[in-house]
Every structure is written in C-alpha cells, then in structure tokens.
Amino acid sequence: MPVLTAPPAHRFDGPELPGVRAKPDGVGEALAEEGREYNTVWQFARFLAAVADGDPIPSLRQRFGFSRHGSGRAVKRLVDDVAQFGQRKKREEDIRGLVGIGVGAGPTLTLLVTRERSGRFSQYESPSLLAGLPGKIAVEVVAPPRGQGRVHTRPAYGGCSIGHTAPTSGSIACLVTLNGDPSKAQHILSARHVLAPRNASSGDKVHQPAPVFTGSAPIGALTQFSDFSKGKPKADIALARPVDANACQPQLHGTNTRPGPPRMPKLKEQVTLLGAGSNGYTKGSFDRYLAYIDIALNGFGIVRFFEFGRAVMNTVDGDSGAAVLADTDNRAVGVQCAAKSGYAYFSLMGHVVNHFGGLTLA
Q: What distance in Å separates the CA atoms of residue 42 and residue 77, rounded to the nearest whole number?
C-alpha cells in the first residue's frame, strides 16, 4: 500500500487559484498522490463548503489564506452565490440552492445544485471564468438528498427504516423463511431491540419507516424475538410477519441484488452494512470474534451477549437491525446490534440461524 505524503503547508509552486494556500488534512493527504493541482482544488472546495455553511467569510479568508485581491470577479461572484444559496436550511423541503460541493477526477470542482439554481451556477463551468484554477468546474443538478430508507417505501427492502410503535428506530436486515414452517411464509428480520422493545408482545405492530419519521405506517406484526433474560444470549434479533405479500421484497434497498445464503464471517474479510441510519452502504472489515460483550440497549440496560462479532466500521443510530454482508460473495454474516468508537457489534449469522431452528433468506 503506497505511503501518502502530506503536501507542504505553503503555497504551491504549480498552478493554483490566487490566494488559496495548501493546508494538509485527511483528504488533502490522500489527494497528494494525485498531484498538487488536486490539493489546490480541494482547498478551494473546503473554503466554499465553509462559506455555504455560514461561517464568516473574513475569518475563512484568514484560515484558508484566501484573498479576493487578484482572484478576479468570477471568484467573488461564485463566493457570493455560495454564501447566498448554500446556507443550511432547518426544513429539508426549503433547500433550493447548493446541495453539495466536491472534488472529482480531473481534478473537477463539482457543485451539486437543485434545478431551481442550475442556471445561476452553470455560468461557472466556463474554464475562463476562474482563471488560475487547475482542472475544471462541473455543475450537477440533483434532488436534495434524503436519508436512504427513511421514507415510506412499498415494497420495503433490506436497508429501509423500521421500528416498533414504542417508538423505536432501526433497519430491516432482509426477508427470511423459517425452515420448520410448512407455509414458507416470509418474515422481516431485524434486531430485537428495534422490533421488540421491553414489554413488547407477539402481534405488536411494526412500522415502516420507523414511527419517528414522516409517512410511517404499519408494515407487519411481531412474531418472534430473542430473550435477553435467559441463559447466555447470543443474538439481538426479531421477526415480523408482513401485512401482505406486497409489503416487502427481498432485494436490498436501492439495488436489484439479494443477500446471499447466511454464513459466519472470516477474520479480516471486508464487510458491508446497508442501514437506514447511515443513509447507504458502510464499508468495514471483520476483526474480532468476541467471547462476550456488554452492550447498553435502550429499555434493557446493559445486556451481555456471548459470541458476538465486531467489525471496524463507522455505523450510527438507525443502523441497528441491518444486515452485515461479506464483500466477496454478498452472503449475510450478521445482524447489526450496536456501535461504539468506530466499531460495529453484531449478532453472528450462525447464531441467528440456530436461534430460529434454521432459516433461509428469501
């Protein structure tokens, strides 16, 4: 693996936007391998992002070494437009401007704008307007991003938001059928603390998206769940029966793929989680089998789980219940339970299968 060297913390010798000074950071170090021009564009993108977020421009000029002197009218206009149309809004539906700023290959400074402001920003795509900026500027018209799976979705997929009426909030892992069930009825698999909080009973309604989100509606009824109070629990899991055959589909949210047959993870293998909390796929690597782990769960206090899995992965609230998949074969290796300090803790799929006396992914 190549060693990434941070760029020098001074002005570049090569082409750069007048008044932008290199300041090493995580992305800057990664872009150093691509060349100085990438860092120039990245630093300008960071400056614009801070402007869009409402930071005072005078202090940003000092922080980034940006000065309007010698930068041209086009840069001044762009900064003013970013300040006007990039401000964060309290209500998602009020976003009518600059949705995001990024750096791509080329290098390309990318402005993500809503259709209402596309004409305003498209003027900056001309390379002559921002003299001194290496590469190019691209304007992409996008809809304001929403949390993936947090909206009312029928049929719902693995990765969509789900929760109990309590309310709770988590993610659908996938659809399964129980090996001992002659009807082969499909069930929604998720975490127990998501579908069945303390004092929950079989038959309770579960909602998609979770009740904390707009558009929540019943999608099924609770059928089975693991018991944390007996023996040595090895899984935080529950099942819910969909309200009808059209309520759910086995594909993962936003894809046409299904998770592969369940198996246990392998140490050091790359894994992926698709959760409603993370708004998409989260990558990581499986690094530990845990003899036991104490986890604090809302409503249950500290629960000690035995033979759990851990992955180096940054997951968030709302991901609980999501499926953990092996990158090599897309097979399900776990069901997310909790996260802390850059680690994800999950029920191992072998224990999930055993708990229900055998199951098959739909």
A: 19
Report pTM. Answer: 0.62
Q: What is the pLDDT along the chain (362 residues), one digit of tens a residue?
A: 223 222 333 232 233 344 444 433 456 665 676 778 777 887 888 888 888 878 888 888 777 776 544 456 777 888 888 888 877 554 434 556 777 777 777 788 888 787 777 888 888 886 655 666 777 888 877 654 443 456 778 899 999 999 999 999 999 999 999 988 888 899 999 999 999 999 999 999 999 999 988 889 999 999 999 999 888 899 999 999 999 989 999 988 767 788 989 988 888 889 999 899 887 789 999 888 887 787 888 888 888 888 888 898 998 889 999 999 999 999 999 999 998 878 898 998 888 988 999 889 98
Task: Find out whether 192 and 144 touch, Cβ atoms under 8 Å.
Answer: no
Tally the residues of the chain. Answer: 362
Alpha carbons 109 and 77: distance in angstroms, whole number:
16
Q: Quick one: DSSP state of residue 7?
A: P
CA atoms within 13 A on the CB side of 24: 11
CA angle 258, 158, 165 (to 5 degrees): 160
Q: Cα 191 to chain center, whole Å?
A: 18
- Cα of 69 vs its chain's centroid, Å: 40
In 3D space, the residue among 183, 137, 139, 168 whose CA is nearest the CA of residue 238 turns out to be 168
- C-alpha–C-alpha distance, residues 208 and 37, integer Å: 46
Give the span between the Cα atoms of 24 and 243, in whole angstroms: 54
Domains of the chain: 26-141 (no CATH), 156-252 (2.40.10.10), 270-357 (2.40.10.10)
Q: What is the DSSP string of 117-175?
A: GHHHHHGGGSTTTTTT--SEEEEEE-PPP--TT-S--SSEEET-EEEETTT--EE--EE
Would you say 335 and 346 are in contact if contact means Cβ atoms under 8 Å apart? Answer: yes
Distances (CA, A) of 213 to 173, 182, 204, 298: 19, 36, 19, 19
Compute φ and ψ for 76, nearest 5 degrees: -60, -45
- At 237 the three-state DSSP class reads coil
**Contact (Cβ atoms closer than 8 angstroms) between residue 352 and residue 259:** no
| Radius of gyration over every alpha carbon of the chain, rounded to an integer in angstroms | 24
291 residue type, one letter: A
